[in-house]
Amino acid sequence: MKRGSKPARQVPLGRARVAASILDADLGNLAHAVKRVEREGGDRIHLDVMDAHFVPNLTFGAVTIKALRRRTRLPFDAHLMISEPGRYIDEYLDAGCDSITFHVEVSAEQIEPTLRRVREAGRAAGLALRPGTPLAALEPYRELLDIVMVMTVEPGFGGQAFMEDVARAKVLKARDLLTHKLHGGEVHVDGGVNRDNAELLGGFGADILVVGSALWTKGRDMGREIRLIRALADEGYQYALNDGVPPIPRDKLVTFATLPRAEARTLRDEIEAAGIPVLLFRSAADPPDMDDGQRHWDLLLPAASEAAAAERFGSPRAGRERKTPA
Ligand code: DX5
Ligand code: ZN
Predict the structure, then answer these.
(1) How much distance in Å is there from the Cα of 210 to the middle of ligand 2?
(2) 26 carries an active-site annotation
(3) The listed CATH number (3.20.20.70, 3.10.450.50, 3.30.930.10, 3.40.190.10) that belongs to domain 17-240
(4) Alpha helices by DSSP H, 250-323
């Protein structure tokens, strides 16, 4: 490849994803920062909102996020380090945040309604834990969680040292709080994440690695750092949690069933009601010019949820396929 030219944006394989925190970017040019993350292959933009009350630092709010929304297609992952997420949540929804994680240490009465508000808006809702807060603090809210965020630094600033003991105590166990989600539950790790601890975190099953200062180090190739961290996390997952087998690529789809349209739609609706997304495609087994009402349709779903779908919907699938042989 010619020196200086960038590889075309690769759709990342593997399981781990990197959410780039822009806290340590040039805050005087955030549009450039988010575009650079997108160009370099980052998976999400992690937006650290601080109110100088919940944490001793003040950054940016919903107005800034809204202004950045049109600058990139990457998902916005908001991390609200603010004392009153309930009071301001609609502003972050309106600003276009795809996921919103706030802290379980805020006053308890706002937690449940705010999680519900985020989910009603069709976004991913998360709770974050300071290093000193036990996972048990999330128990009362577990059914409302899409994201559990384990902080491995004290919230408030980028560039702090990674707390390995906190990671060892919480990251693997955090998954237990997401068992209600057949698909899409995510464990995020945030704080001091870099190439030195990515393999450890992948070995604890971390889905999203939030990386800040390690990406904005002068002279460092951001894209290479992102690919390195993802690869190391997948390596950790493969050997610590997956018996040496490479992880299922996060975005891989598999055909779960092939049925006539009406049957396919009914089974799709049942599976989606359980929280697993399904796509319907015209089955390649039938001639392309066949009438849609006559042809068979393939139900595709995320490979990572195939086992859960088979367990829950294997018999309805078999029943329908027996009734309507291909
Ligand atoms: C800290 C923030 C983190 C931080 C990550 O309060 O929540 O997202 O910006 O930056 P590094 O990777 O430098 O710790
Ligand atoms: Zn953060």
Answers:
(1) 7
(2) no
(3) 3.20.20.70
(4) 261-273, 306-323
Q: What atom in ligand 1 is closest to the CA of residue 151?
A: 7
- Evaluate: CB of 190 within 6 angstroms of ligand 1: yes
CATH of span 253-323: 3.30.70
Decide if 17-240 and 253-323 have a common fold: no
d(CA 174, CA 163): 16
pLDDT one digit per residue (tens) for the chain, 326 residues: 566 665 555 678 899 999 999 999 999 999 999 999 999 999 999 999 999 999 999 999 999 999 999 999 999 999 999 999 999 999 999 999 999 999 999 999 999 999 999 999 999 999 999 999 999 999 999 999 999 999 999 999 999 999 999 999 999 999 999 999 999 999 999 999 999 999 999 999 999 999 999 999 999 999 999 999 999 999 999 999 999 999 999 999 999 999 999 999 999 999 999 999 999 999 988 999 999 999 999 999 999 999 999 999 988 888 777 666 65
Residue type for position 88: Y
Per-domain boundaries in the chain: 17-240, 253-323
Cα distance between residue 144 and residue 126, in whole Å? 8
Mutating to test ligand 1, I would choose from 153, 154, 164, 194 the residue with most ligand atoms within 8 A of its C-beta, which is: 153
* CA–CA separation, 219 and 212 (whole Å): 15
* pTM of the predicted protein model: 0.93
